[in-house]
Structures are given as structure tokens and as C-alpha cells.
Amino acid sequence: MRSSPFRPVLSLIGLLFILSCNSGPAPEDLNYLQGYWEIRKVAFEDGAEKAYAVNTTIEYFQWDGKTGYRKKVQPTLEGRYLTSDDALPMEVNWREESLFLEFSGGDSRWEEEVLLLDTLNLTTRHSNGIIYSYTRHEPFSLKETNVE
């Protein structure tokens, strides 16, 4: 029985696909989570997307290695943040080599899988399938701007 002439090509394509797949964040990438993140895009399961050019609120993540919280803050023109005492408790867990942020608020619990985490980008997939893409927020201050 003859082997298909496409078999080596298909094997090579399969190998390249496996090597190019991003396995998600590594444990050391968790150092990047803490701080201020600005939502840039939301991708829905049906393929629709919503882009955010300007945001009035920023997500702030605080954690101590296992538990922490997430809260919404509002940046001011002076480079500070307005906040409240409301914070969403968060647990950081690894399962099957994937990173999950588990939240509890009121009577509900949900999780978000971290798909990408580096110094400038955070992408999560909510348990309902919606994908959230963030960029690291850089504070803006009018006090630092010289207008002549």
C-alpha cells in the first residue's frame, strides 16, 4: 500500500500548528497582574466585537499570591484615582496548566481564564464565553503637561 504524498506535508503543518499555539501565561507572568488595566475590546461568542476608545473606569487588580480583589476606579485629570470600598474578592488558581481568576460577588460566583498576560496586555475569557482584552493603564495628568 502506497503512502499519500501529502502525509509529510500534513505532518509538518500539524507540528508547526502545535509549536505555534500559545499555552497561556506562565506562573512568573502573574507578577504582571497587579495594577491598573483599561478595557480595549470585548469579543462576544457570536463574533461581534465592541471596542472602547475612551474609558471612564479602570480595573484595578490587587493580589498577594493566592487571593486578592478586583475593583473599578475612576482616573482623574490629576493622575489620581477615585475609588470606593467596593472590591470583588478574587482567587488565583491553576488548573490543567491554565490560569483562572475566580470571583465572588453577592450570591454569584464566576471565573475568567487568563489567555494572555504580559507587561502591557491582559486578555481573559469569562465562563460565559465573552473575551475581554485590556491594556495596562498609564495615568494621565494635566499637572505634568506644560501649556504655553
UniProtKB/TrEMBL annotation:
Natural source organism: Robiginitalea aurantiaca
Keyword Signal: yes
Signal peptide (residue range): 1-26
Protein's name according to its UniProt entry: Lipocalin-like domain-containing protein
Lineage of the species this protein comes from: Bacteria, Pseudomonadati, Bacteroidota, Flavobacteriia, Flavobacteriales
Keywords from the UniProt entry: Signal
